[in-house]
């Protein structure tokens, strides 16, 4: 076994663990292929199980023979291990470093994890594209399922099954794919039942400097328009960036070739700019010594909330075009795998009540992120503490979750789930025992045989015992479109993620529990009153019968 | 009334403050002796008390009319467009006069009549009894006693008559010390912590200049130190930045010289003076009021305004707060309400948001300790509202002496009974007096805990708030639970009655030996009974209506229940799309 080679010292005694909100504890440190375990032995409660894949960076320090390893996790937690003995400390550190940066996906924990729970429903089959399409097919016959990408040959980052306009055949789709970045031809993302308008998404058109055009592409997107209607193309990049993209073979839809479409440019940042933003924000949150001015200026300099505002604004704009203007839209940036998905999925949260339920939200993640080919493996490889700045690492998904949280805060009764579901998804996207977020797209997941070899996150989440943790006690179905405020005064730092390890939430948690108690008590009383009223009514009728001879 | 020339103007437009597309409501503007009232075409009323008006501006004439901008002390900003310039001018002049009263007697409190008789009024004033408050703290005791030194306000005009001082401090010492302190405010007891036998005292700066000293003052501080037997040292906290304190020496004032006081440690806390605070708040409001604000402008503005820095400084220094503390600490001890809040047309330099700041500090504590306060945010906002409204006598005048001279207790009403009357609205449903052993709160003052208080500074900008309020729902649910508990009791007793009746009935029934088929009426009556429950549940989502003048808070609260406000759509959507 390869892991054994990497673990030079599997066990060290008398290690002291420091972690947020707990007193320091002394115990035995063990390294396994996938976990760092600290057990105090005397007392079973003081145990730490940390996935190596959750480790973002480590620092070593030595004072005499005592070594200290500071472990910075991808969920932003920082823990410290005091290890007696220089050699042990160095061995442990190098093992952790090696084990937390394994190259091969098949060596990751999900391939070794054996669930201890009973699987009620296999999550790999919970959200099949055919079932999702059935939800639409009752409302419209203008769309069809296409299996053109069955072998992942037309578009490597698309799933085998996609929804396209009925009027466009697979041959045309193949041609369009050559005209769109990464072969990502326009596909249906969301169908608005209220007025039959749609959101489509794609990669950028490959117009290049000489203004190449593609008749099939024009025909495809025009097929979604009603007679005499115009649509909107939302390009998530600013105009100058889109123009520069032409030099590299990319570009945007020219008005002359798409006369029925109006193009709107927004500016959602991508890649390392977002990663740097996250690094700065986490740094600012972790430094408790800041005075007020410094805190505010660092919060501002991180630009995190600026990104949130821009993404939310674009999503609201898309939702507005659809719902208020009654127009269909096409959304893309460059690849169509990042900012595009943020906008399409958030627009659905705003428009579609189903996506605000637990099942519906999971389906949305499955459809708009996993199936749609957001490269989780690349984007979530490292988190806020890592020094190796790779271009493809980017907290795109975390930004999406943060935006959902912002809407949840403004409409606390309109979501079936609570903040915990969002936090859980963040954690599992970065480090998990489940196979759901492994790989960059369906094609890779197929090759890895994840369905056969690993457990799906949904299999675990969708059991009643787990679901109860994620249920929002205030939920009451709201069938309306929910329009959030995107003013800076209305946006907040997501404390549940960014201040989670920096300040105790004891009093807030207790208050939340009290709130749940009040709600539970209310239900109980209502039920009791109903029963008593029924009893009374029965008694009254009996009385009535007795009185009337 | 002599100031009012026009009482009614029609076809007035009320602009949306944050709209970039000049969205507006059209309606009629009325001017009464006490309020400015706008009724829009949907019959929605906007009431503005004249005393709340901080600034009236008439802007340059536009094609649609004459713009009139009114900024209120409760952070409401309204932008009217009056079709005729003449009307606008009249209203402008009237408001200028009405919003700044030269005499106390013109304040609303002196004309406000809530239909209470004299004894009710008196009871209202007796609601908060300071003597009781001191008793609660365990005073007087062996170390502290009530002093009559200031009975006739002879020693200090801005102190109340009743003061607690160390038992061993004689009257000459007190008199001597008061001469050494700015405005005669010698050290007196503010709060006594029974369990720890420790006291908080307060006083004004000593008139030390560069070298002066006062033996009586030194004795008094010594006496205070001895009255705290549990502690070896006494701390003197100077709330000013050290530099300000030093600068004051040139004016013959200054700070205590450590060499002259034994067993005392001195510390500067660095809370800026009122002038800095005033301009800081002004900057904050300018930032938060701008249209199309970007996130980074907002945060650099927050930083530039320094308001949160001041809030943090105050909280860092502050310790205990509650309703009774407001009465005791601020009112009786001469916070210069009238001057600081600008009730009267006086020196604008004396106006400062110190009390607003205090309320904000309390709010930050409620955010950190959601279960520790019996009152809720609405209570804080309502108090803030009435500090400026001058509708009640509590916050009028600068010190107890002035308040007695104004005969406030005879001529005006106290706010507290009115708040008490509406107490359901101000109860914190999550409050727990027992489960949390929070005798003393230990607030976390790391910077990231301090947030912009949107509900205060944007109280009237309903589009910026969450569309559904967890707080209101829980509050209503809590109320409903009480009702349900009562229902359960009532029903149970009714059922019991019926059963008693039936046991009698059963006998007759058995005698008659008659059995009847189940009547169809039974089913229908069941349905009816259960339906009566449903409306109660629906009522949870909507907050009850309220009289506009007194309950501004719920004015936007009812908006929470509507799920489709058009903020994003018009401001950030179409507007951008068309350009």
UniProtKB/TrEMBL annotation, chain A:
Please name the GO terms of the biological process aspect recorded for this protein, alphabetically. negative regulation of autophagy; phosphatidylinositol dephosphorylation; protein stabilization; regulation of phosphatidylinositol dephosphorylation
Q: Which UniProt keywords apply?
A: Acetylation, Cell membrane, Cell projection, Coiled coil, Cytoplasm, Endoplasmic reticulum, Membrane
Subcellular location(s) per record = Cell projection, Ruffle membrane; Cytoplasm, Perinuclear region; Endoplasmic reticulum
Domain named Myotubularin phosphatase is located at 123-498
- Topology in the lipid bilayer: Peripheral membrane protein
| GO terms for MF | enzyme regulator activity; protein phosphatase binding
User: Where are the annotated coiled coils located?
Assistant: 508-542
Q: Just give the chief location class.
A: membrane
Instruction: Give the matching InterPro entries.
Output: Myotubularin, Myotubularin-like_Pase_dom, PH-GRAM_MTMR6-9, PH-like_dom_sf, Prot-tyrosine_phosphatase-like
One GO cellular component from the entry? endoplasmic reticulum
In terms of PANTHER family, this protein maps to: MYOTUBULARIN-RELATED (PTHR10807), MYOTUBULARIN-RELATED PROTEIN 9 (PTHR10807:SF56)
In the record, the note on similarity to other proteins reads: Belongs to the protein-tyrosine phosphatase family. Non-receptor class myotubularin subfamily.
Entry protein name: Myotubularin-related protein 9
- Organism (species): Balaenoptera musculus (Blue whale)
UniProtKB/TrEMBL annotation, chain B:
InterPro entries listed in its UniProt record: MTMR6_PH-GRAM, Myotubularin, Myotubularin-like_Pase_dom, PH-GRAM_MTMR6-9, PH-like_dom_sf, Prot-tyrosine_phosphatase-like
One Pfam annotation reads Myotub-related
For this record, an example GO cellular component is: cytoplasm
Q: Does the keyword Transport apply?
A: no
Please provide the record's keywords in A-Z order: Coiled coil, Hydrolase
Family classification:
Belongs to the protein-tyrosine phosphatase family. Non-receptor class myotubularin subfamily.
- This one is known as Myotubularin-related protein 6 isoform X4
Give binding positions for substrate: 273-274
Q: Which GO terms describe its molecular function?
A: phosphatidylinositol-3,5-bisphosphate phosphatase activity; phosphatidylinositol-3-phosphate phosphatase activity
List each coiled-coil range.
Answer: 474-501
Q: Where is the Myotubularin phosphatase domain?
A: 124-457
Q: Which GO terms describe its biological process?
A: phosphatidylinositol dephosphorylation
């Amino acid at each position: 076994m390869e892991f054994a080679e990497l673990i030079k010292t599997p066990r060290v005694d008398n290690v002291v663990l420091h972690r947020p909100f707990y007193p320091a504890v002394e115990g035995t440190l063990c390294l396994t292929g996938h976990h760092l375990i600290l057990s105090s032995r005397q007392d079973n409660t003081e145990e730490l199980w940390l996935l190596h894949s959750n480790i973002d960076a480590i620092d070593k320090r030595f004072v005499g023979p005592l070594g200290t390893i500071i472990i910075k996790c991808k969920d932003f937690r920082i823990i410290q291990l005091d290890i007696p003995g220089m050699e042990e400390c160095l061995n442990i550190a190098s093992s952790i470093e090696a084990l937390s940066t394994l190259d091969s996906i098949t060596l990751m924990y999900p391939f070794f994890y054996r669930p201890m729970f009973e699987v009620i429903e296999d999550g790999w089959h919970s959200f099949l594209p055919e079932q999702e399409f059935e939800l639409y097919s009752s409302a419209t016959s203008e769309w069809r399922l296409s299996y053109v990408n069955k072998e992942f040959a037309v578009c490597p980052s698309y799933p085998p099954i996609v929804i396209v306009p009925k009027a466009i055949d697979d041959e045309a789709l193949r041609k369009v794919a050559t005209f769109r970045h990464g072969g990502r031809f326009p596909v249906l993302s969301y169908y608005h039942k209220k007025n039959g308008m749609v959101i489509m998404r794609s990669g950028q058109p490959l117009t290049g400097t000489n203004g190449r055009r593609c008749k099939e592409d024009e025909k495809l997107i025009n097929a979604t328009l009603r007679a005499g209607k115009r649509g909107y193309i939302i390009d998530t990049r600013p105009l100058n960036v889109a123009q520069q993209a032409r030099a590299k073979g990319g570009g945007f839809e020219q008005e002359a070739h798409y006369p029925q479409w109006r193009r709107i440019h927004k500016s959602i940042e991508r890649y390392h700019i977002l990663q740097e933003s996250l690094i700065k924000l986490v740094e600012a949150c972790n430094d408790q010594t800041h005075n007020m001015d410094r805190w505010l200026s660092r919060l501002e300099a991180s630009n995190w909330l600026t990104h949130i505002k821009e993404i939310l604004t674009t999503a609201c704009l898309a939702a507005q075009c659809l719902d208020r203007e009654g127009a269909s839209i096409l959304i893309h940036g460059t690849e169509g795998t990042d900012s595009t998905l943020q906008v399409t999925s958030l627009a659905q949260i705003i428009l579609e009540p189903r996506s605000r339920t637990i099942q519906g939200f999971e389906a949305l993640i499955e459809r708009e992120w996993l199936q749609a080919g957001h490269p989780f493996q690349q984007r979530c490889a490292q988190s806020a503490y890592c020094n190796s700045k790779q271009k493809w690492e980017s907290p795109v998904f975390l930004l999406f979750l943060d935006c959902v949280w912002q809407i949840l805060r403004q409409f606390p009764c309109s979501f079936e789930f609570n903040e915990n579901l969002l936090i859980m998804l963040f954690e599992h996207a970065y480090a998990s025992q489940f196979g759901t977020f492994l790989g960059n797209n369906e094609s890779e997941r197929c090759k890895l045989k994840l369905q056969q070899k690993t457990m799906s996150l949904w299999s675990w989440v969708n059991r009643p015992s787990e679901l109860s943790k994620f249920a929002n006690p205030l939920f009451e179905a709201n069938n309306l479109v929910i329009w959030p405020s995107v003013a800076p005064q209305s946006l907040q730092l997501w404390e549940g993620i960014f201040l989670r390890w920096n300040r105790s939430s004891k009093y807030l948690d207790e208050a939340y529990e009290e709130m749940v108690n009040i709600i539970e008590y209310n239900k109980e009383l209502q039920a009791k009153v109903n029963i008593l009223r029924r009893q009374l009514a029965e008694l009254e009728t009996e009385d009535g019968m007795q009185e009337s001879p | 009334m002599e100031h009012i020339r026009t009482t009614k103007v029609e076809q007035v437009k009320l602009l949306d403050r944050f709209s970039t597309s000049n969205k507006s409501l059209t309606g009629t503007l009325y001017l009464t002796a006490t309020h400015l009232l706008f009724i829009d075409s949907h019959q929605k009323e906007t009431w503005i008390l004249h005393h709340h008006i901080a600034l009236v501006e008439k802007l340059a004439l536009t094609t649609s009319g004459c713009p009139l901008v009114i900024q209120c002390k409760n952070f409401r900003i309204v932008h009217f467009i009056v079709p005729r310039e003449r009307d606008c001018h009249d209203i402008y002049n009237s408001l200028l006069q009405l919003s700044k009263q030269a005499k106390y007697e013109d304040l609303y409190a002196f004309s406000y009549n809530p239909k209470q008789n004299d004894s009710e009024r008196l009871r209202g004033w007796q609601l908060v009894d300071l003597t009781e408050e001191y008793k609660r703290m365990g005073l007087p005791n062996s170390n502290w006693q009530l002093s009559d030194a200031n009975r006739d306000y002879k020693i200090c005009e801005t102190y109340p008559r009743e003061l607690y001082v160390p038992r061993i401090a004689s009257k000459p010492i007190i008199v001597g010390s008061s001469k050494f302190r700015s405005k005669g405010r010698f050290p007196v007891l503010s709060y006594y912590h029974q369990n720890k036998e420790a006291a908080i005292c307060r006083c004004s700066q000593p008139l030390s200049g560069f070298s002066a000293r006062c033996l009586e003052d030194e004795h008094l501080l010594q006496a205070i130190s001895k009255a705290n037997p549990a502690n070896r040292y006494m701390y003197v906290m100077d709330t000013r930045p050290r530099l300000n304190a030093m600068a004051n020496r040139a004016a013959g004032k200054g700070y205590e010289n450590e060499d002259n006081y034994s067993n005392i440690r001195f510390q500067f806390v660095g809370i800026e003076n009122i002038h800095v605070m005033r301009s800081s708040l002004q900057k904050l409001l300018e930032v938060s009021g701008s249209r199309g604000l970007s996130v980074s402008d907002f945060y650099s503005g927050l930083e530039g305004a320094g308001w949160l820095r001041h809030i943090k400084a105050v909280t860092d220094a502050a310790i205990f707060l509650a309703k009774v503390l407001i009465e005791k600490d601020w009112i009786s001890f001469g916070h210069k309400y009238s001057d600081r809040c600008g009730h009267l047309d006086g020196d604008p330099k004396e106006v400062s948001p110190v009390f607003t700041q205090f309320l904000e500090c309390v709010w930050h504590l409620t955010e950190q300790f959601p279960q520790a306060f019996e009152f809720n945010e609405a209570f804080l906002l309502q108090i803030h509202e009435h500090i400026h409204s001058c509708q009640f006598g509590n916050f009028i005048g600068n010190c107890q002496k002035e308040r007695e001279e104004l005969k406030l207790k005879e001529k005006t009403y106290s706010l507290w009974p009115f708040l008490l009357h509406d107490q359901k609205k101000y109860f914190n449903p999550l409050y727990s007096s027992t489960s949390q052993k929070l005798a003393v709160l230990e607030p976390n003052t790391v910077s990231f805990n301090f947030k912009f208080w949107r509900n205060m500074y944007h109280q009237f900008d309903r589009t910026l708030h969450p569309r559904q309020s967890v707080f209101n729902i829980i509050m209503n649910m809590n109320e409903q639970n009480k009702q349900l508990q009562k229902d359960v009791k009532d029903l149970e007793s009714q059922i019991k009655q019926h059963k008693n009746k039936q046991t009698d009935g059963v006998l007759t029934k058995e005698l008659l030996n008659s059995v009847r088929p189940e009547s169809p009426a039974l089913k229908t009556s069941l349905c009816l009974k259960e339906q009566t429950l449903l409306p109660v549940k629906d009522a949870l989502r909507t907050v009850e209506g309220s009289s506009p003048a007194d309950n501004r808070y719920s004015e936007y609260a009812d908006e929470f229940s509507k799920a489709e406000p058009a903020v994003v759509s018009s401001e950030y959507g179409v507007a951008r799309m068309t350009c």
